[in-house]
Amino acid sequence: MKKLVFYSFLLLNIWCYGQKKVLQAQLVSQNIIIDGKLNETAWESASIASDFITLEPDNGKPAPDGKKTEVKILYDNDAIYIGAKMYDDEPSKILKEISQRDNFGTADLFGVFINGFNDGQQDFMFYVSAADVQGDCIMTDANGEDYSWDAVWIRKASLTESGWIVEIKIPYSALRFSAENKQTWGINFFREIKRTRYKYTWNFVDRKVGTFTQQAGILSGIENIKPPTRLFFMPYASYYLNAGEGQKTYGNIKGGMDIKYGINDAFTVDAILIPDFGQTKYDDQILNLGPFEQQFNENRAFFTEGTDLFNKGNMFYSRRIGGKPSVEPELNDNEEIAETVQNVNLINALKLSGRTKNGLGVGILNAVTEKTFATIKDTITGETRRTIVEPLTNYNVIVLDQRFRKNSSVTFINTNVIRNGHFRDANVTGLVWDLNTKANTYNLSGNVKYSTINASEDKRGLFSTINFAETSGKYRYSVGSDFVTKDFNPNDLGINFYTNYYSFYGNANYRILNPTKLFNSFRLNYNMYSEFNKDSGKVQEFNIDANVNLSTVKNNYYGMGVTIFPVEMYDYYEPRADGRYIITPKKINLWGSISTNYNHKFALDLNPTLSIADEPGRAAFGVDIGPRYRFNDKLLLTYTFSLLKKNNNKGYIDSYDDDDNEATPEIIVFANRDVITYANTLSGKYAINSAMTFNLAVRQYWSSAENKNILQLDSDGRLDPYPQYTENKNSSFYSWNADLSYSWWFAPGSQLSALYRNNASNFERVIDKDFKRNVTNLLTNDALKHIFSVSVKYFIDYNAVKNKIRKRA
Questions:
Q1: d(CA 255, CA 400)
Q2: 809 CB-side CA count, 13 A
Q3: pLDDT value at 772 more than 90
Q4: Per-residue pLDDT at 6
Q5: What would the pLDDT profile of 47-74 be if each residue is shown by its tens digit?
Q6: Residue 5 pLDDT more than 50?
Q7: Average pLDDT over the chain, rounded to whole?
Q8: Of the candidates 474, 543, 483, which has an alpha carbon nearest to the alpha carbon of residue 512?
Q9: Which of 84, 228, 587, 784 could bond to 71 as cystine, CB 3.0-4.6 Å?
Q10: How many CB atoms lie within 10 A of CB 658?
Q11: CA 113 from centroid of its chain's CA atoms
Q12: Among 8, 42, 2, CA closest to 25
């Protein structure tokens, strides 16, 4: 009898969780007012989606009766409408911090995930918090959630005596679906109760399976609707007031327009005419002592919105477009650059992207930057001349991404840079694959890329990688290998640092899928990585890593790890010379991480690190300390102090030719140095309401490298004293950035923003260890640059304008 009961319960679970739930949408003719009340009569007869199931931490367990959720869907010729009731038997404990769009803070959350083609490949996700803050993103299993995508839709959340309610209107223009008369969409609903960190979905999402988007339910009943004309205009106007020492205060006005046009039900063209990026976030510049450039985040909306296709294969680095010039000017004797060109101006940019019903994704991006000159000054005569540092340049990216079997894809990518005249051109072509078994238990992924540089000396290079992984269950593993030739160079429109090597790596990990008495989540990882120089076969990198990450039942997060480098390694990059290397010692790295529950008004992030090398006195230690305090649902302040100190660090400082030494014609100079870095950041948010916020971001940074003794790199990779080198190569870089901004979403898709920014930076060879003086030196009228700007962007929907004209007629 007991066995009969057990097997009956097992079969019931398999039936409930193995089947996709189906919800019927109801056609509505009356006007639905988005007010968070659900008081129209059409809501009363609509079908109900209920019986939510826990996503995490207790995956598969039904939601408790006191926290049940009910969702209904209506539709008409213009949009679908979602009405959701989130019941809570302790409504006074609902968390409802007000925050900016796409940043939900400490608040309960409701979401609807829609796939108009029901192909299990890509979800359009729409979120609303209990504080009436909205967020949206595009979700794929390969790339996760991309919150840079913003759609125009309407929502309203309201609190009730039994919980809270969300009412949403999503115009069809914000979605992608076929032109068939009877629609079948993939759909799922999501709820998070923030105080317990429990997450629920309507259709069961099994965490043992390595996919999320393919475990959605079904939305049926939508018939005889037509994809609308997706034509949007976003005109903008901006005013900038600039002030700084040695220059006259001046103002300038900018204006332009962004255009979005849906060519058909699948593809959209985005065009930017007369771009304005003056209000983008500042870059966190650092003292860069390494052999490679600093990589920056992309903050320009045009290059972040809906770029999942262009990110395939990691071949596209959008900061190349409108970035620093590609040419260093040649200087004659007694000449200097009068003013450094920081960025090349973007003339225009266009982006086409979309996916057909058969799963073919197409992405085309094209941008043009203007011809740019630098001014060169003769230090004796005072005469100036102009020289080209960037010609008129065209940047182009083409992506063809074929999805199949709802969980796999093969992608072709080409990036191309054409510079006018005799300047260098570049082309990179890649093939990327991501293949999964039908049950999503195993994955085979990889890519092959081929680069061509057309310059005074043509160069061609190859990059290839392959990876195999088990992607389901408590125990998972992966193995992989890379192969990169010396002349592989995608850096005209991509970014890559390491070449001329082959590598082998592997990972094994264990995780719990359901909570225990102590942990809500627990994951243990073991990693091994080995890398060899392709020409010599010498070990460039070899490490063994083990780490653990967990969250307790009280929702505090902890992590710790150790990485061991058990052999000496040969660094071919730090010497900055072809074929030369420096031998780096054995070492061990330790790290820890603590993040207390953000649900509390006060929370703390703590991240210590320690590195000890097998070399006398060579070590590094650092710490990040980040207290945060939420005064109320409107005001939040977060402060972070970062310290990193490296003792007896060995690094490159100079090189020159030695004509008297045939054995070693190039002298490469290193320094034994102490490097110390301080950074203080303060961020704050005050929300007047869900559409209007003030934001503060302040960063102070200082890093110095003090050379204690000078060393020469020998041909065998060892360092010897080199006291005859006397040039000062100490480095000290300090900077200050402060942004105070105001943002008001005064209508759907329309925003008014005001920004006050001041910033200053300085690089010196003389190290002043007076921390206070280094900070205050940047906070004077002589050092600071000031910018005040106001920008207004207005969203115009062609369909809305057309409908208004019809009603008036």
A1: 34
A2: 6
A3: no
A4: 39
A5: 999 999 999 999 999 999 999 999 999 9
A6: no
A7: 91
A8: 474
A9: 84
A10: 12
A11: 21
A12: 42
Give how far the C-alpha of residue 551 lies from the chain's centroid of Cα atoms, to the nearest Å. Answer: 24
Confidence of residue 407 (pLDDT cuts 50, 70, 90): confident
More confident residue, 805 or 292: 292
Which of 154, 195, 191 minimizes the C-alpha distance to 50?
A: 191
State how far Cα 280 lies from the chain centre. Answer: 15
**What is the token pair recorded at 374?**
């630098």
Tokens of 171: 């115009």
Nearest-5° Cα angle at 655, 650 to 659 = 135
What single letter denotes the amino acid at residue 588?
A: I
Instruction: Give the phi and the psi of residue 214 in degrees, each rounded to 5.
Output: -90, 0
Helix (H), strand (E), coil (C) string for 10-70:
HHHHHHHHHCCCEEECEECCCCCCCCCCCCCHHHCCCCCECCCEEEECCCCCECCHHHCEE
C-alpha 88: how far from its chain's center?
A: 34
* Best CA proximity match to 391, nearest among 314, 460, 492: 492
pLDDT digits (tens, 9 = 90+) for 234-250: 999 999 999 887 677 88
* Integer Cα distance of 451 and 462 in angstroms: 6
What is residue 2's predicted lDDT score, i.e. its pLDDT? 43
The strand pair at 26-27 and 666-689 is best described as unpaired
Q: Output 394 or 802, whichever has higher pLDDT.
A: 394
pLDDT at 24 (0 to 100): 96
Whether residue 720 is predicted with pLDDT greater than 80 in this model: the reply is: yes
Category of 17 on φ-ψ map: left (φ > 0), alpha (ψ -120 to 50) or beta: alpha
Q: Cα separation of 433 and 449, whole Å?
A: 12
How far is the C-alpha of 141 from the C-alpha of 438, rounded, in Å?
A: 14
**Could you tell me how many residues make up the chain?**
809
Q: Which of 311, 395, 297 is nearest to 349 (CA)?
A: 395
Q: Which of 350, 316, 293, 115 is nearest to 212 (CA)?
A: 115
Q: Looking up tokens 């870095």, which residue turns up?
A: 677
Q: Assess whether pLDDT exceeds 70 at residue 4.
A: no
Q: Are 253 and 276 in contact (CB under 8 A)?
A: no
- pLDDT-above-90 percentage for the chain: 72
Report in angstroms the alpha-carbon separations of 574 from 160, 256, 571, 682. 62, 45, 6, 34
pLDDT at 662: 59
Could you give the CA distance from residue 465 to residue 170 in angstroms, rounded to a whole number? 41
Residue 9 has pLDDT above 50, yes or no: no
The one-character DSSP state at 774 is H
State which amino acid sits at residue 501.
Y
| Distance from C-alpha of 274 to C-alpha of 148, rounded to nearest angstrom | 21
Q: Is the pLDDT of residue 664 over 70?
A: no
Instruction: Give me the DSSP letters along 498-564.
Output: --SEEEEEEEEEEE-SS--SSEEEEEEEEEEEEEEETTT--EEEEEEEEEEEEEETT--EEEEEEEE
Q: What is the pLDDT of residue 17?
A: 43
Rounded Cα distance, 93 and 450, in Å = 57
Residue 418: is it exposed, middle or buried by C-beta count within 10 angstroms (0-12/13-18/19+)? middle
φ and ψ of 17, to 5 deg: -95, -20
pLDDT at 728: 95
What are the φ and ψ backbone dihedral angles of 709, each rounded to 5 degrees? -155, 155
63 Cβ contact partners less than 8 Å away, ≥ 6 residues apart: 51, 52, 53, 54, 69, 191, 200
Report d(CA 47, CA 28) in Å as an integer.
Answer: 13
- How far is residue 741's CA from residue 791's CA, in Å, rounded to a whole number? 11
Contact 731, 651 (CB under 8 A): no
Residue corresponding to tokens 């994704």: 361
Q: Pick from 8-22, 222-236, 368-382, 638-652 the range whose average pLDDT is largest.
A: 638-652
| CA distances to 108, 112, 151 from 134, in Å | 12, 12, 11
